[in-house]
Specification:
253 residues; alpha/beta; 6-stranded mixed sheet; 36% helix; globular; binds adenosine-5'-triphosphate
């Protein structure tokens, strides 16, 4: 699905100081991959490159097997949920969720509305379609933003810290919900997080980014699915978390 070889990126304001270089990773169809790393190491920048919002300054990026040096060719191919939920405050929940349809104009509006109603029910958000984002809780807003990302109908989803600002209980609920959704939809997910337990609970593999010329380290999460929070206390989970924590610490200091 994604193949990245020796990728580098530098902002034009500091061309001598690349945000990252020598970055290589692969993502297979249907995988759940988390990306962790110190603040500022370039995780969101990488997502913007994959989504087609920025052009990489070196190396090779293949999405769906195609080498794409022109970022605009990737626009609309990848569903991208940035760190802020970016729901439009003047639009109702339904009108926010209809945005991908408005941009693509694929199929009839009536069908798009019907699909979104079904998704709202499935996401536990029935009865919210006429509400405005400011009338929703943080957890509901995140689910609406994710529903909108899914409604774009792309096979590849980039989720940038979608649960970063939520309390522990809501986060757990949304983890369960996201895992169920992922196993039924079979989408490919790239997920940025600072929460190592979250990364271990959700992912098939984890990439630890170092920034600069530090590249990435890869960790396989060899824990059977379906996963549950009780697994956090199992020796294998604890050992993986300790290893990841240590490597993260080493990547910073
Ligand atoms: N538009 C910009 N112009 C110049 N530098 C930028 C710009 N946007 C981001 N940066 C810098 O690029 C680096 C990487 O930023 P990025 O947001 O990708 O990091 P991150 O790993 O996602 O951080 P966090 O975990 O805090 O979200 C940072 O040092 C940031 O200050």
């Amino acid at each position: 699905m994604i193949s990245i070889t020796n990728l580098s990126y530098a902002f034009s304001t500091s061309p001598q100081m690349p945000v990252f270089s020598r970055l290589s990773m692969n993502v297979r169809r249907g995988e759940f991959i988390s990306i962790v790393g110190a603040s500022g190491c370039g995780k969101s920048t990488l997502f913007k490159i994959i989504a087609g919002l920025l052009r990489h300054t070196g190396g090779e990026l293949k999405v769906h097997g195609m080498i794409s040096d022109d970022p605009s060719s990737r626009l609309g191919q990848v569903a991208y949920m940035p760190q802020q939920d970016l729901l439009l405050p003047w639009r109702t929940v339904m009108d926010n969720c209809l945005l991908p349809w408005e941009l693509k104009r694929k199929g009839s509006k009536a069908v798009a509305v019907k699909n979104i109603r079904e998704m709202l029910d499935r996401f536990g958000l029935e009865g919210t379609e006429r509400l405005y984002p400011q009338e929703l809780s943080g957890g509901m807003r995140q689910r609406i933003a994710m529903l909108r990302t899914l409604a774009a109908g792309n096979e590849l989803m980039l989720l940038d810290e979608p649960f970063g600002a939520l309390d522990a209980i809501t986060k757990r609920e949304l983890h369960r919900w996201l895992l169920e959704l992922w196993s039924s939809l079979k989408q490919t997910v790239l997920f940025i997080t600072h929460d190592l337990e979250e990364a271990l609970l959700l992912s098939d593999r984890i990439y630890l980014m170092s920034g600069g010329s530090g590249g990435v380290q890869e960790f396989s999460v060899d824990i059977p699915r379906p996963r549950h929070y009780r697994m956090n206390y199992e020796p294998k989970f604890i050992a993986l978390r300790e290893n990841l924590e240590r490597r993260l610490h080493e990547s910073i200091y």
